[in-house]
């Protein structure tokens, strides 16, 4: 056993030595396309020191450099080395150029970089300096709106995914939504993104950290060119400068930047007029149709349910179900509408149904005619019609309706029926009573008599005292406000309090409580408002600035909790702050 242990340790050390001994020598450029009045930065980086470094020929550029930096670090006993040669290049003419290979000798072996292709365009309005922190931030952080389809049909589902790309060179301190898209010409629904994690992806040929901020499903409600508004973020970043510390690492500086996902335009096609059914109500997707009854045989006065149901994928909330046509002899109540729908990146899926309660009044057989449902099928791009089978409701027992009763009387009119007299038809009417005298003690002067007599005189002063206390309580406007505010805070935060200690459940409940409170208190939908707008509305209602600041910090805590660990102590503090802030807003808001 000991020998096996030594062998494993030896293999591990040997493997680690091989991995750590791999040599890397590469070239990184700040951008691959630039204006002739701009400049770019190119870095030649190696993870092991070498000799005879030879830069490529920069014949098409004016060159500043090189700047050399070296950094050493020890992490868990493992040494990390990095040496960098940095050049700043200014193009001398327009065109497409190739920066050739740089070479270096490391441990007697020559290593070369991959050539870099650079495109130089006409001069830009605002030349960018690679040393400018704002320029570095703009080049290393991107907010992108990815639209699944730019030429959909009317009422066809499309998705918009807002994704943030951040370069490893940049650190994000905080961020919040400054402006949210409103989707005026669409039916929209956001998809939960709270469990999204940071991924590593390639964007524009470079490695970035990415995070999905929002997923939205849209159903266009108009034809023609429709605009999807951008999502705008305020971000606090730390970006590298051209200055270095004593270890050769770049020094970071703080930059505040507003970024937006550019406007997106989609061209919505109208549904074809050719073959459109007369009863088409706007259903678009892939559906099945069913009409069912809970009973086919029953008695008059009993009830049955007829269910009209559509299942499938498509705009399930945006069309009407066909109506059931029943004979007038059947009493029909208003249908109960039910929806069992889930929404994901593919759009809505599930079922919708109308359930009719039917009560027959008379005996007989009642046919229920076939019902049809039409929709536009996106796969075949044609209209389709689905029809139900005809049903018959057989009422076995019950009265006949007027027509059937007259027919039955006509059949029976030929036979005379004997009249049967009741033997008590002329019974004698009694003229004497059999009342029994009651010799019990009279109610007057009993204990119950005196209690009932004095009860009103006792109740009157009690009622006056209760009314006086109520008037005093109603006059205490401030006290009532405090009691109402505290009660409101407890109401909205009860779910969050139950989830204390469970980070995700707690902050989801806390965020929902905050949104529901604003919706109830100042009648706004927070999903459609930025923090600046919420702050403005609260100021208009004379809420103090400190209280507004605390309230916005709660919203920010809910956002940050998705991506950062939170302790129970922090959750308890956020809960107490939310309770106090909601109470203060309710007292101060006019």
Structure characterization notes:
There is one protein chain. With 590 residues, the chain is of the alpha+beta class. The protein folds into 4 domains: 23-128, Sandwich (Immunoglobulin-like), CATH 2.60.40; 135-268; 285-395, Sandwich (Immunoglobulin-like); 477-588, Four Helix Bundle (Hemerythrin (Met), subunit A). It has helices at residues 2-20, 133-140, 402-412, 447-475, 477-498, 503-521, 531-540, 545-560, 568-588, and strands at residues 25-29, 33-35, 40-46, 51-54, 61-75, 78-91, 95-99, 103-106, 109-112, 116-121, 141-147, 158-166, 171-179, 186-191, 199-203, 206-220, 224-228, 232-244, 250-260, 264-268, 284-293, 297-298, 304-314, 330-332, 336-344, 347-360, 364-368, 372-377, 382-387, 391-395. The strands form 8 sheets. Strands 21, 23, 24, 25, 26, 28 and 29 form a 7-stranded mixed β-sheet that branches. Strands 11, 12, 14, 15 and 16 form a 5-stranded antiparallel β-sheet that branches. Helix 6 (503-521) runs parallel beside helix 9.
């Amino acid at each position: 056993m000991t020998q096996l242990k030594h062998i494993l340790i030896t293999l591990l050390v040997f493997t680690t030595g091989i991995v750590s001994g791999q040599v890397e020598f590469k070239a990184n450029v700040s951008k691959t396309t630039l204006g002739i009045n701009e400049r770019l930065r190119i870095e030649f980086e190696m993870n092991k020191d070498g000799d005879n470094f030879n830069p490529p020929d920069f014949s098409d550029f004016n060159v500043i450099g090189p700047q050399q930096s070296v950094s050493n670090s020890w992490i868990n006993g493992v040494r990390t080395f990095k040496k960098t040669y940095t050049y700043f290049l200014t193009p001398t003419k327009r065109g497409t150029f190739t920066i050739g290979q740089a070479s270096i000798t490391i441990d007697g072996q020559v290593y070369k970089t991959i050539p870099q292709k650079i495109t130089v365009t006409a001069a830009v309005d605002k030349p960018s300096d690679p040393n400018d922190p704002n320029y570095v931030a703009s080049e290393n952080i991107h907010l992108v709106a990815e639209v699944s389809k730019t030429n959909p049909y009317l009422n066809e589902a499309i998705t918009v995914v807002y994704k943030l790309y951040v370069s490893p060179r940049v650190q994000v301190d905080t961020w919040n939504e400054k402006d949210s898209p409103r989707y005026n010409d669409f039916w929209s629904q956001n998809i939960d993104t709270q469990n999204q994690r940071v991924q590593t992806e390639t964007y524009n040929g470079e490695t970035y950290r990415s995070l999905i901020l929002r997923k939205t499903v849209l159903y266009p409600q108009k034809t023609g060119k429709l605009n999807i508004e951008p999502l705008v973020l305020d971000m606090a970043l730390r970006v590298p400068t051209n200055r270095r510390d004593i270890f050769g690492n770049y020094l970071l500086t703080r930059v505040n930047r507003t970024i937006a996902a550019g406007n997106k335009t989609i061209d919505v096609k109208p549904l074809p007029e050719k073959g459109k059914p007369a009863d088409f109500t706007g259903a678009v997707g892939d559906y099945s149709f069913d009409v069912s009854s809970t009973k086919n045989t029953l008695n008059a006065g009993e009830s049955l349910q007829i269910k009209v149901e559509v299942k499938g994928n498509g705009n399930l909330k945006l069309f009407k179900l066909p109506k059931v046509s029943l004979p007038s002899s059947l009493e029909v109540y208003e249908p109960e509408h039910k929806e069992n729908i889930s929404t994901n990146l593919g759009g809505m899926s599930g079922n919708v149904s109308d359930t009719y309660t039917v009560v027959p009044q008379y005996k007989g057989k009642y046919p229920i005619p076939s019902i049809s449902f039409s929709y536009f099928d996106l796969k075949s791009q044609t209209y389709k019609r689905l029809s139900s089978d005809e049903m018959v409701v057989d009422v076995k027992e019950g009265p006949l309706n007027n027509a059937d009763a007259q027919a039955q009387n006509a059949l029976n009119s030929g036979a005379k029926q004997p009249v049967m007299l009741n033997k008590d038809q002329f019974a004698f009417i009694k003229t004497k009573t059999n009342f029994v005298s009651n010799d019990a003690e009279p109610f007057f002067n009993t204990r119950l008599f005196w209690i009932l007599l004095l009860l009103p005189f006792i109740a009157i002063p009690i009622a006056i005292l209760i009314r006086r206390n109520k008037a005093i309580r109603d006059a205490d406007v401030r006290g009532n406000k405090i009691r109402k505010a505290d009660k409101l805070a407890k109401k909205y935060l009860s779910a969050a309090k139950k989830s204390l200690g469970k980070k995700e459940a707690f902050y989801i409940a806390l965020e929902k409580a905050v949104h529901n409170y604003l919706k109830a208190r100042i009648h706004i939908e927070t999903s459609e408002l930025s923090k600046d707008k919420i702050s403005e509305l609260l100021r208009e209602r004379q809420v103090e600035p400190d209280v507004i600041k605390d309230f916005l910090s709660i919203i920010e805590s809910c956002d940050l909790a998705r991506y950062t660990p939170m302790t129970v102590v922090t959750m308890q503090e956020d809960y107490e702050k939310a309770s106090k802030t909601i109470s203060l807003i309710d007292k101060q808001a006019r």
